[in-house]
Amino acid sequence: MMWRRSRTGLPVRAQHDVRAAVQPRFVQARTPFRSTSTPTARWTLIETIAAETPTDAYLSQMPSTGSNRSLAVARGRSYDKGRGMVAQALWVAVSKLIFTQVWCPNRLRCTILRWFGAEVGQGVLIKHNVTIQWPWKLSIGDDSWIGTGAELYDIDTIVIGSDVCISQRAYLCTGSHDRRSATFGFDNAPIVVEDGVWVCARATVLRGVTLGSNCVVGATALVTDDVPSNCVVRPPRPAITPR
Questions:
Q1: Which of 95, 131, 168, 182 has the least C-beta neighbours within 10 A?
Q2: pLDDT higher at 56 or 101
Q3: CA separation, residue 50 to residues 15, 53, 162 (Å)
Q4: Does the structure show a pLDDT above 80 at 59?
Q5: Domains of the chain, with CATH numbers?
Q6: Alpha helices in the chain (DSSP H)
Q7: pLDDT tens per residue, range 215-231
Q8: What is the pLDDT of residue 121?
Q9: Are 137 and 116 in contact (CB under 8 A)?
Q10: Across residues 232-239, what is the average pLDDT?
Q11: Sign of the alpha-carbon dihedral angle for 93, 98, 99, 100
Q12: Higher local confidence (pLDDT), 61 or 96
């Protein structure tokens, strides 16, 4: 079944149906159409899936590549950063010029974080090249370690308990996007790391996860769900075969 393409990038019939009560979303594929005259391109309707209703702004800016979202509409829409532009700019400058540098003493790193609103306990050790998005959304308990090159992407809150070890290049990410959203809206959630946890080198912990006390996340492991206390998360073993 063939439909002609409208100026919005959606088939005319599809554009009408999107605004109707059923409110489906369409996936399109471009197929060549040849006639006795000059070849032209038309659109074939290939699939309909349930989704939330795109707005008129979304429809007007939807690309003609078959994408079911519009990043142009999402541009400029942000999450709550928790501080104004001055505080953000000041933190970025201090982080780049002082906090992440190898010559910066650990005591000064902890003090800088407290200046910017982080809750930092006693005996905390933070190595160089640690990346923290917004320190005012971070809490670290007593005697915890943050290893070289670790990244705490705390656009939502990250709470780290006491006696926690976050090893080298580990990545804690509180940010995400709603894949079903026509405007690719944010889908952020906090991360909680309870007392005694060890997040090993290059492990990744995603949004909304709570790591129970004394659990271990193995090197390079990916954590997408809560981990109970006293458990171990092991990464997949590599396949070893003869050459």
A1: 131
A2: 101
A3: 15, 9, 45
A4: no
A5: 11-74 (no CATH), 85-233 (2.160.10.10)
A6: 12-18, 56-61, 71-74, 85-94, 106-115
A7: 999 999 999 999 999 99
A8: 97
A9: no
A10: 92
A11: positive
A12: 96
Q: What is the DSSP string of 135-168?
A: GGGEEE-TT-EE-TT-EEE-SS-EEE-TT-EE-T
* pLDDT beyond 80 at 6: no
Cα four-point dihedral sign 64, 69, 71, 75: positive
Map tokens 């690309």 to a residue. Answer: 63
The amino acid at 25: R
- Where on the phi/psi map is residue 65: left (φ > 0), alpha (ψ -120 to 50), or beta? alpha
0.85 cut: is pTM over it? no
Per-residue three-class SS string for 203-226:
CEECCCCEECCCCEECCCCEECCC
Please report the pLDDT score of residue 205 as a whole number: 98
How does DSSP classify residue 10?
S
